[in-house]
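User: Round two. Same drill as before: sequence, then structure, for each protein.

Assistant: Same drill it is. First protein:
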Amino acid sequence: MSNESHAPHTAGATHPRTTDSHWIRTTDATDHPPLTEDITVDVAVVGGGIAGLSTAWELTREGGRSVVVLEADRIATGVTGFTTAKVTAQHGLIYDRLRRTRGGEGARLYARSQQAAVERVAEVSAALGIDCEFERSPSYVYSRDGAERDALKAEAEAAAEAGLQAAYVEDTGLPFDVAGAVRMEEQAQFHPRKYLLGLARDLTAYGNKIHERTRVTGLHEGSPCRLTTENGRTVTARDVVIATHFPVFDRALLFARMSPRRELVVAAPLPADRDPAGMYICEEGTKRSVRTAPLGDGRRLLIVTGETFTPGTVDVPERIERLDEWMHTHFPVEETMYRWAAQDNDASDTVPLIGPFHPGARHTYVATGFGGWGMSSGVLAGRLLAGTICAVKAPWADLYDPRRIWSTVREAPTLLSQQAEVGKHFVGDRLRTTHVDSASDIAPGTGAVVRLNGQRCAVYRDDDGGCHAVSARCTHLGCVVAFNEAERSWDCPCHGSRFGVDGSVLQGPALRPLEQRNVDGPEGS
């Protein structure tokens, strides 16, 4: 049905900024202690998101291993804490592409592994009694462009051939007309933090440890492996899993095979009887993804994602307003309750990279490149890596193996395009003239890259007028950062590292903070 005449949006702020996500706001904060002594375990997992916690839990309950999880901040507050939390095997228009690039068997393995992850969440949450708002829901990829019907029909056919309950349809629960859609049954959505905090409780109940505010800065591969932390502690383990979304150690140069992107999210209460009853995604133009979550009092929380952009993009507030307006135009929602942003890494050959870290790795493993579908892929990674470490190879292990050079060669044009974009930033951002001449030109609550005392500096002026200056060079590979006004962060456009206005690391692959700079002097006045 078509009805696009709803109340105008009420974004309110001239420059809207992001908030914590619904998942973080509706759960208690965690307080696992930092690591303060040297320890030895069977397996060390670096990263406390869905991939890391799922791997640790599977190793504990299914593999009987002693495990430690090391998280630089708080568990389930990074990328996982800002997801839209769809647990689905429908990843956009992927199965027709997989059928063409990896054959029918490759598409079937991808479908089986991803659907198995959906069922694993259902199984584990029921077994542990975790009230994580798990709901079965159909998933749709839709288009409003009639020219896309053939592509949608081909996708429905390929997904069905791969073993999924998929069909082409032209009727949906959306409040506007679509040209066509692929509907997939038996998919799900949940509250990711409630689920993962349940895993964490069970993990520690079995005597394993989680250490938050413990940043890992060094990795020595051997028999055994050794990890060193920012505060000088050592973790000795037979096996190490790097599950930090973007690998903080990259001996296989995986950063050259992935491209980072951020997506904005807005959410507002919706009458329960106007729920579109499904999870939807449209990949045309600026992309729109829609789902709802329980809210109570006869309402659901409508969650809308879109406005994909590269970290370091400067027009983020305008993008938030555009997404907010789209939501209020198409749905009868109340005032916007949340605005947040999520970050993802796309593998150059579509499939996530899960398995041995590099060709010479014997006891180190990685999970990355989830391409925006981290809930199913993170759970999948937990089972796949736990099985590999326990010498039980999954049928789809080769499909996800990061050492799959053959597919990288085949996808060379995509890879080269990604690295050309990185090169453009690496060189071009150094040559570009800054848009302000001195720190005095920076308005409160904003930031800019300014040359101070002969150095290119990232300068932020706080709401009280105080200036804070750090080096503008990302500590990963030296690209120039840009200010993200909506999130008040310094973002690297090359590989997605993000830093606080004080230079602290918010998101890797960077391990070290931006160096402090002196804002005093004639150029910084």
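Second protein:
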Amino acid sequence: MSQYQNNIASVEKLVNQQLGTWKAISPAYAARMQIQNRFKTGLDIAKYTAAIMRKDMEDYDRDPTNYTQSLGCWHGFIGQQKMLAIKKHHGTTDKRYLYLSGWMVAALRSEFGPLPDQSMHEKTSVPALIEELYTFLRQADARELGELFKQLDQAQQEGLNTSKIMAQIDNYQTHVVPIIADIDAGFGNEEATYLLAKKMIEAGACCIQIENQVSDAKQCGHQDGKVTVPHEDFLAKINAVRYAFLELGVDDGIIVARTDSLGAGLTQKIPVSQHVNDLAAQYNQFLDTTEVSSVNDLAEGDSVLKQNGKLVKPTRLPNGLYKFKDGSGFDRVVLDCITSLQNGADLLWIETEKPHVGQIGDMVRAIRQTIPNAKLVYNNSPSFNWTLSFRQQVFDLWQTEGKDLSNYQRESLMSAQYDDSELAQVADDKIRTFQADAAREAGIFHHLITLPTYHTAALSTDNLAKGYFGSEGMLAYVKGVQRQEIRQGLACVKHQAMAGSNLGDDHKEYFSGEQALKASGKDNTMNQFDVAV
């Protein structure tokens, strides 16, 4: 017996126990609603998706071609349309996630209006977006399953075999997938981090990404002025997130520890070392210092450390921040990553200044000398000029190989004059294979783009506005949007159905029977799209 039939039998038994008072309740309809609402709470989602992500991590460890991907989504509708597109074009949601970007929450979801990525937005907007994303994904399930139920009804009315449709219903693959959710630097101290992590998990997050910047001085990873915290402070927040997972029963929740040390040259405070070569001492070894031979080497208010048997003065800026040694970023990243994995983190995120497989791979190989199965979540960031970066990488490679570069100017390789050149074609091929190459050679388990849908919204709106308010008029929308939706088979062309109109009609029929006033009758203009394409 199918799960659907089991649900019918279960509801029918319950209805029969009510001595006729539930006579208007259809067990079949109730069973359909149960199947269309598979996930009752955000915690159900977090537990389900954590198991998926853990399995994916194991698959990657066996074979790095099994890397995973996601796109950042700033609204539930965007996340829903992304997953619908994935199922339509690729047939499965396997190895595809959603990413919740703190940058896009700040820029697009704050009540203050657009904000920079500096943890100034309301922290509650982060779990609210997680809940919204999953609400839209669950609605996508309900809509598609509703269509299958209509096909089932039609087949039953015509006396056809329904086994294939039943199998589709029972084996239906949900649009609900893991979300990697950005908690920034925790929005406060470790208690604040714990409280926010709980809200995020309760909303459905199985994976939380946290960074080692100072919470109240947080900057976007691709901006200047980043300030990191000592390891002890960061590990306390990792512990806070783990406790939140355990308290809520998501025992296999995933923590992504992000280090910004490659681009961060400052620290807010000097940790206190308790033992020789402990974490605090290792952190302090990276400080830029000058040796102190007497009190005369000190100004009023200067700090002094004893390091390696000598007295040294850390370089302190007028704002009170301390400076790291130039060129220490690589080693600080490696120590950050090893320490995080040894203290409860599951995955790493190394924020880099360019997408370079060799650079990332060098750091991962250094980490794997201590943690052999270390693996990364990596930001394929729109902050990189991918075209210029890869064209310059090819230029530099060809230069070492002694190839003739007289037709190219390295600093001008972004110019459209090079778009059809051999160098540009080689660079584009490297961009195309970047994710597979980095998964294989640099330990990247998950590739994401933080804010792609921010840019696609801007680009598509620009294209529409250019034509609509110009000489094309309405043709700009019809030719550039609606006709493309029809030709490419986007379900969203029937926007009333996408927004839930048909689902509402189904429910009205369940609740009111033949008295139901439904919106999907012959005069619904959405019927104009039921045409051959």
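The mean pLDDT is 93.

User: Perfect.
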